[in-house]
Structures are given as C-alpha cells and as structure tokens.
Design a protein that fits this description.
The chain is built from four helices and 28 strands. With 268 residues, it is of the alpha/beta class. Strands 1-2-5-8-11-14-17-20-23-26-27-28 form a twelve-stranded mixed beta sheet.
Amino acid sequence: MITLPTQKNKTLAEIHATALVNPGAELGNDVRISPFSIIEDKVIIGNNTWIGSNVLIVKGTRIGDNCEIHHGAILGAAPQDIKYHSEETTFEIGDNTIIREYCTLNRGSIDRFKTVIGSNCFLMTYVHVAHDCILSDHVIIANSVNMAGHVEIQDYVGIGGLVPIHQFVRIGKHAFIGGGFRIPKDIPPFLLAAGEPLEYAGTNSVGLRRRNFSKEAINRISKAYKILFRSKLNVSQAVSRIKEEFEVIDEIKEIIDFIESSERGILK
C-alpha cells in the first residue's frame, strides 16, 4: 500500500500500488483503495470510504463519507438503455452506505440524468440498480434483487432476495417485500407484500415497532389497509372511505397521497 495525495485537493489517501486512479478523481481524507481497482476521471469519493479489490468506479460517480464498496462491484456504468448516447450523467451514493460484492449500479439517462442511492443503505451481493432509479435512506436490499429503470424506493424499505422489480415501480416508506416474488405494481407504505402474484400480506408491524411507531398508529394503519384490501370496495371507493373514517394523521395521509399519485396502480 502506498500513501499519495490526490491530484484535486491534496488530501491523503491509501492507494494500493496495483490500483489505477485517474488524476482527475477527487478523494477525501482516509480513503482506502484496494488492489486492482479502477477509479476513473470525475469520480468523487468522500472521507473514510473503503474501496475493495477489483472494483470499477466509472466517470461521474459520487460516493459519500464512511461507505464500503466490496470486491467486484461496478458503480456508475452506462445505462442498459438503447436511448442512451453517452450523455454526461451521474451515479450518486450518500453517506454510511454498504455495497456488497458484484453489485452493478448504473448511472442515469437523459430522463433524470442521475441514479441515486441514499445514506445508510445496505445492498447485498449481486444487486442490480438500473438507470434513473432513486433509493432513499435506510433501504436494505437482499441478494440478487434486480430492478429495471426508473424505480423509486422510499425510506426504510426492505426487500428479500431474488426479487425482480418492474420499471417505474414505486415502493412506499417502511414497506417490506418477501423474497422471490416479482414486483409489477406500486407497493404502498407500511405494508408487507408476498405471494405470486404479489399481494397484500398485512402491515409491517414488526418493522414499525422497531422504528418506534406507536401501537395506536400501527392499529390505524392496519384498519385503513383492511378497508383498502379486505373490503369489496374498489381502490377509489376505499380511499374515500378511509378519508371519511380516519383522522388524517401523517401515516394515513402518507397512504392516501401514495395511492392517489400512483401511475402504475397498486398491488392487489
């Protein structure tokens, strides 16, 4: 291992002698780059971030502080989209995020011009994040989840392994999706989803309790979803009933706003 100042800001980083770091890359303090990794031009890596071996970080990638990028991951590669013609776009990661082995994370296309993974996220082995996806904070994604372009995943979502996610799908806050099930429709916040075809499987009460939701709030969420999914009302009728029967507290408003803004429609 050798210690070198970066070209841009003269801070110290530990760069293995076999790693290739473009002089145009910006490295924060205490960045560590392991053997045989490649860091291209216009890459920004924040303080105290570790880059494992055989990692490729492509031009236009921005990584926050205190991140871990494990062996064989590829960050910021060009979109797998025939409409993309080498426009300058970015791939961005927040702070304290872990990317495990062999993840493939593509930069944005001309739609959003960026792909974003938030802070405090954990992406396990072989996860694929396509162009123009937006993952918010505290998202946990298990092995071999593959998402198409333009997917949006909100805060504190958990997704089990081997899940394919259709393009333009949105997944609401605090939802949990079981492993091995395809996601073709939007998943409203706070619920569990499982089965083939994917369907409502209850409220994510365990996750909500862990995040200090009150018992009263969890009960209101559960009752609202029973109207939506267990009554014989259609979606618009169920939403109207929820508005009539519940005080519009934050969690109920979150559910209503999510459903009313859904373009793909929600799961069964």
